[in-house]
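fyi for ur records
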Amino acid sequence: MTVDTRSKINDGLQIFCQRHFNDYPQNVSRLTAGANMEIWAFECAGQPLILRRHPGGVPPTENSGGLSLNHEASVVTLAYENGVIAPQVIGRLTAEDDLGVGFVMARVEGEALPYKLFKDPDYAAALEKFTNQCAEQLAKIHAIAPERVTVDLPTLSIEQNLTNLKAALDMFGVQIPVYSYALNWLEKNMPEEVPACLLHGDFRMGNLLVDANGMSAVLDWELAHIGDPAEDLAWLCMPSWRFGNYDRPVGGVGQIDDLLAAYQRASGQSIDRQRFNFWLVYATLRWGMMTLKMTDIWRKGLDRSMERALIGTRASEVELDLLLMLEDDAGLSGPLAVPFDLPQTTVQSAEPQISELLTAITDWMKDDLIARETGSHLFNARVGANSLSIIQRMTDYGPHFEAAAKQRLAALGVSHGELCAALYNGQMNLATDGLWTHLRLSALERLTMHQPRYAGLSVAREKWQVSQ
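which gave:
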């Protein structure tokens, strides 16, 4: 952040605060440095406030699929007025402020980072209420009739959601067999449409503030749209939002049956488990496509941060999650039919190997660089060290895994691309000898290289009786 940027924010907020409070802003500080959104904290007239605006005040040139900040402010205001614990919108930026597009809202106290919430005993009592409070807040959001929304929101039917997933799959050139199979499964298991309602669209751990007394705010409404209420409930339970607590699907805190029962009590509406499971598979596949979109954004030069380039490796987490979800439905759960062993790496010469050089650099970053950095530099150092570790595992294991996959595909009589197409079109049956074994081995191989500490990997190893 440059001095000029801070000065511009201060100047603009002075104009805004004079207009709304006849006072001046104090203690202005930036809370995020991301490419998606700028978040600034400040006080005025004794009130803690938040400025939310696009980076540089300029909306992204590429459609991100989210609402404009002006539309988001309207939705947040409507939710607040209807009893949802959304922050109160104080006002919107105008041309006079010279800060671009954005709005100012009340700042609510609380913690959103899951790892802090799970580790700090001060939040233990609050998390006991979390599942019920999620259900209550979602019931209030869903009770807002679509006709009461004063701005245009996307209205997405089940069929349209699946069409969008298929378009993304084709646009990114995705060739992940389990993704293809999951999309085919979704098309075959579409539930009946139900009356649509307002959805938050990104209701999950990380977007929910929690204080010592319980949930204190529902944040980040830019993905709000009109749709099936079960979509919001399932998104909350998607595996990647469990943050290590894989056996507690509701945000890493609670259980699905408890969430659905609490939602029925709060809303008077029952959501059956089969419908919920459809949306859970949809949510998981959708997140997989979103991770790949992040890499696509990096490739197009719209955001060249390391995090953008790296996040696409998380697509392999989704691959494993989908297998764990869908194998029982297919009647294919049980031990892996063949052993899964990591290749043994050997030193081939007295000269340092690529893997050894990568280890040396990674160790330096972890032991020296990370210990000295703070703020965004510390975050980037950790991302860099993680990236090098992934490259090292791809170097050590990649050739072995690739050769093994080619042998399995040869036994199946298809190429990788042909397998993806056959699974999506339903031309290949999962009962084909060796196919399910290949899919499980492929997921284990990719995740072992990309994210070996992912909680779902331990779950899969235990369920499939894979040696550690």
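The first helix runs from residue 3 to 21. thats all i got for now
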